[in-house]
Amino acid sequence: MPELPEVESARTVVAQYALDRVITDVDDTDTWVCRPHAPGSIRAALLGSRLITANRRGKSMWCETAAGPTLGIHLGMSGKLVFIDESGDEHDGGDYWQRGRAPGDHRFTRFALKFADGTELMLVDPRRLGRVRLDPPVEKLGPDALTVTLKAFRAAFAKGTAPVKARLLDQEAVAGVGNLLADQALWLAKLDPARPVLDLSPADVARLHRAVRAAVAAAVEGGGVHTLSVIPARHEGGTCPRCRTLMHHATVGGRTTWWCPREQR
Question: Is the domain covering 4-139 a CATH 2.60.40.10 domain?
Answer without folding.
Answer: no
